[in-house]
Amino acid sequence: MKPIFELSKPRITQLVVLTTAAGYYLASSGPFRLGVFLATLVGTTLVAAGTNAFNMIRERDIDGHMRRTRDRPLPAGRVSPRAATVFAVVTAATGIGLLAWRVNLITAALAALTLVTYAWFYTSLKTRSSLNTLVGAVPGALPVLGGWTAAGGSLSAPAFALFGTLFLWQLPHFLALAWVYRDDYRTAQLRMLSVEDTDGHQTARMAILYAVALIPVSLLPTLLGVTGRIYFWGALALGLAYAGAGVLMLFDVNRRAWTVFLVSIIYLPMLLTLAVLNKVTV
């Protein structure tokens, strides 16, 4: 079962569930509906697992050309494409069905949109345009909206502030990772900015741009009455640290790309924790 489990990309699925849970809690008011919350998490986990499996199925030939991914279940021959397809269809369909049945149709639709934008649009663009990173950040940010609507929240300004925060957070994260693995991407003939960028300065500049844009967007939950002042100042400090790591990358791309990546994986859990702990109770 281990190779089948690996199709779900457990670390990515964990992150999806974390952001969904945060969105749910921040939108919830009144008595906490544990049953709906658990159904949201289970349904989201299944959809994320199926989505990641579809991505692996479509990219199995590409994965076989890259050192970082050649040991994944499909290119390594540990799982057949047929078995992977069955897993992807069953888990994704079950997850969307559970969300529609036990949560609501909007949350189920957002989960389905996540699947389509990640497994088809983003995956297809990776061999065609370096804009794939922007497109890929959309499904990465949709789960927080799913959590928000699952708790009964509407698709309002606070919800889109959280979406924007997740969207912008991903871009320096992915740009740094793409620079580190640029040789792999070049070998696989993927259209990434890091492949086209000879010295890394353009990649670093874009990472700085998105990190700076993230700062005001990440402060909106407080300005819109979702979180308190502790979150505001914490988000500001985290945003400045993220942007600062991008500036360091500009001066030493090869060494500091990892710094940007490491700061990014610290940034998000800390930001969400601050939001949850400093939620404004209405």
How would you portray this structure in words?
The chain has helices at 2-6, 10-27, 34-58, 60-65, 81-102, 105-125, 132-150, 157-180, 182-187, 193-196, 201-223, 229-251, 253-277. The chain is mostly helical and 282 residues long. The chain has 2 domains: 1-155, Tetracycline Repressor, domain 2 (Orthogonal Bundle); 156-282. The longest helix is centred in the first third of the chain and has 25 residues, at 34-58. The mean pLDDT is 93.
Descriptors:
282 residues; mainly alpha; 0% strand; single chain; Tetracycline Repressor, domain 2; 78% helix; 2 domains
SSE diagram, text form:
Layout: H1 2-6, H2 10-27, H3 34-58, H4 60-65, H5 81-102, H6 105-125, H7 132-150, H8 157-180, H9 182-187, H10 193-196, H11 201-223, H12 229-251, H13 253-277
Helix pairs in contact: 2-3, 2-7, 2-13, 3-5, 3-6, 3-7, 5-6, 6-7, 7-8, 8-11, 8-13, 11-12, 12-13
Assign the CATH class of the largest domain. Mainly Alpha
Radius of gyration of CA atoms, rounded to a whole number:
19 Å
Order of SSEs, N→C? HHHHHHHHHHHHH
Please work out how many helical segments DSSP would assign: 13
Question: How much of the residues is beta strand, in percent?
Answer: under 5%
Q: What's the count of strands?
A: 0
Give the low-confidence spans.
none
Number of domains: 2
Give the biggest beta sheet. Answer: none
Please report the distance between the alpha carbons of the first and last residues: 46 Å
* Helix content percent band: over 70%
The helix-and-strand class reads mainly alpha
